[in-house]
Specification:
Blueprint lengths: L3 H9 L11 H15 L2 H7 L3 E4 L10 E9 L8 E3 L1 E2 L2 H8 L13 E6 L5 E6 L8 E7 L21 H23 L3 H26 L9
Parallel strand pairs: 4-5
Antiparallel strand pairs: 1-7, 2-3, 2-7, 5-6
Helix pairs in contact: 1-5, 2-5, 5-6
Length: about 220
């Protein structure tokens, strides 16, 4: 089975790392992260295995994580039902935690928000606060960072297999942009530059068509 890098080379008709030798990982990772942002939480939850269980409000939310779902158990039984937490703006969190308030959240209608604790940055705050007996649950997916190189992989972790073609297409678009920039800076053959620009536009159209299968998922039946 071809790797992601090989599939990109097949599309652009050249080795994917010829021009953007210093930034090829960034260009491919940017494509992956863009696709992640365009996929729904429901789809990503089927493939992401990243999850933490909380007994207090202690989960940091670094910028390279996307939160997919937050929930809270309603009792201490072994198979306790997890109720989804409703996200509220940070300015409304205090109102929802005020005892006796008509807005007060309960374990049957829990809430969560993001708050800066002044030391480690943004945290997820769940109310009622998780305990040892009634734990909180956070499902998330990590964006690809500079340390990740998927070009040599045949499968991208936590990404639907059928969404990989969109990543290959967007990676090709990003890399062709680097080719175009190189032509502009070096004043190379303008006719060849026009051909590459046309190829980039064609691949971008294919990418948009590929992603329309996912972003319009509620509007039409899909195989996923």
């Amino acid at each position: 089975m071809a790797t992601i890098g090989q599939r990109i080379s097949d599309l652009i008709g050249s080795s994917y790392d010829t021009i953007p030798s210093n930034s090829k990982k960034d260009l491919i990772n940017a494509a992956c992260n863009e696709v992640i942002d365009m996929l729904s939480n429901a789809i990503l939850l089927k493939y992401s295995t990243q999850k933490v269980e909380l007994t207090s409000n202690s989960f940091d939310t670094p910028e390279n994580d996307r939160i997919l779902r937050v929930g809270r158990e309603i009792d201490a039984t072994a198979n306790a039902r997890v109720v989804d937490c409703k996200i509220v703006p940070v300015e409304e969190y205090d109102r929802c935690t005020e005892e006796g308030s008509i807005y007060e959240a309960t374990k049957y209608s829990p809430i969560f928000s993001y708050a800066d604790d002044g030391s480690s940055g943004s945290k997820i705050k769940i109310f009622p606060e998780p305990t040892n007996d009634e734990r909180g649950h956070v499902w998330y997916i990590s964006y690809l960072t500079i340390s990740t190189d998927v070009a040599g992989l045949t499968d991208i972790p936590s990404i639907p297999k059928t969404a990989e073609q969109a990543i290959v297409l967007k990676s090709s678009v990003n890399i062709l942009q680097a080719y175009i920039s190189d032509f502009v800076q070096d004043e190379e053959d303008s006719e060849l530059q026009q051909m590459i620009t046309a190829q980039q536009a064609q691949l971008m159209a294919q990418f948009q068509g590929e992603m329309s299968r996912w972003v319009n998922q509620e509007e039409q039946p899909k195989g996923e």
